[in-house]
Design a protein that fits this description.
alpha+beta; 7 helices; binds 2-oxoglutaric acid; binds fe (ii) ion
Length: 324
């Protein structure tokens, strides 16, 4: 049975560390194999993660009408996502069993980049939880640093020019979804989140100790990542798969919350700057043939097609939907 390795990435934080090459090798093996890894030694304190889970719980504890007042709109993909609001693009018709709160890279109202790409802007911060903004932005900044460490390791492991991936993440379209999954009864059909691939470059999640995240192996089994307290689960998304010419794997995963407890998570989705065109930086592996994608266009299409009456067009890139 394939497994998801746990890798101590502290050698990446220390220039010239004797274990750097071995650590890069382990990360590359995980990302070219199952496409998932657990990481420890990130420098992010466990208390920081716990403080995040506390504010996420508080945000979903806000009374329903007040949450709806701050709901996401077609014009602004930020704010509250009510339970069952988006039906997956897989034709199954069964809505996922989560409520969410969408946040994007925080950009001031008057930032010049907003003229270049309308996807940038300030977040809609939950009114009832004033502490959320500081806690989330602090956590976000720490995960930006973790993402850059991992991207640096992947540049190294793939033999790419130093900085070629990392430089794409200046003024990124990185985003985060806060998620609450109520417990599902053992005989209840459907998913917390249906099986999908992530469309970003890489995702970093602090798994809820109640469990529920499952990853599909090449053999078709579903396995659960082990992740020590204070660690993170990291996975490759479609953008890094494309950049690497198919070497790094974007792997299907899903959430089913049969723990009997409320489950809270807050995945961080690393997405490059709007004008970055993602295309293979290495000769694609045999059988890997996907067109180049402009990140601003790709992100706009992901936002747009989440509304069930908005369908994908000929120029819509892959959207993480599984067809088998
Ligand atoms: O909540 C989780 O653990 C995973 C969520 C997820 O896969 C996603 O939002 O893309
Ligand atoms: Fe995902």
């Amino acid at each position: 049975m394939e497994r998801i390795p746990t890798i101590d990435i502290s050698p990446l934080r220390d220039a010239g560390h004797p274990d750097r090459a071995a650590t890069v090798g382990r990360i590359l093996d995980a990302c070219t194999g199952i496409g998932f890894l657990s990481v420890t030694g990130t420098g992010v304190a466990q208390e920081t993660i716990e403080a995040m889970r506390t504010v996420v719980r508080q945000i979903f504890d806000v009374p329903e009408p007040d949450k709806w007042d701050q709901a996401i709109t077609r014009q602004n993909y930020r704010g509250y996502i009510p339970m069952g609001f988006f039906t997956p693009n897989d034709g199954s018709g069964t809505p996922d069993r989560y409520e969410g709160y969408k946040l994007h890279q925080e950009v001031p109202e008057d930032a010049p980049i907003r003229a270049a790409c309308p996807l940038y802007g300030p977040n809609r911060w939950p009114r009832e939880v004033p502490a959320a903004r500081k806690t989330i932005l602090g956590y976000w900044a720490e995960l930006d640093a973790v993402a850059l460490l991992l991207l640096g390791a992947l540049e190294d492991g793939l033999g790419l020019e130093a900085g070629v991936l990392r430089s794409a993440f200046e003024d990124p379209l990185t985003n985060m979804t806060l998620l609450h999954y109520p417990p599902q009864a053992p005989d209840e059909d459907g998913y917390g989140i249906h099986p999908h691939k992530d469309t970003d470059a890489l995702t970093i999640i602090a798994p809820d100790p109640v469990g529920g995240l499952e990853v599909r192996t090449r053999g078709g089994d579903w396995i659960t990542p082990d992740c020590p307290p204070g660690g993170f689960v990291v996975n490759i998304g479609d953008m890094l798969e494309l950049w690497s010419g198919g070497r790094l794997k974007s792997t299907p995963h899903r959430v089913v919350n049969r723990s009997g407890q409320e489950r809270y998570s807050f995945p961080y989705f690393a997405v490059p700057r709007h004008d970055v065109v993602v295309k293979p930086l290495l000769e694609p592996i045999p059988g890997f043939d996907r067109p180049a994608v402009h990140c601003g266009h790709w992100s706009a299409e992901i936002w747009r097609t989440n509304w069930s009456d908005e369908t994908a067009g000929d120029d819509t890139p892959e959207l993480g939907t599984l067809h088998n």
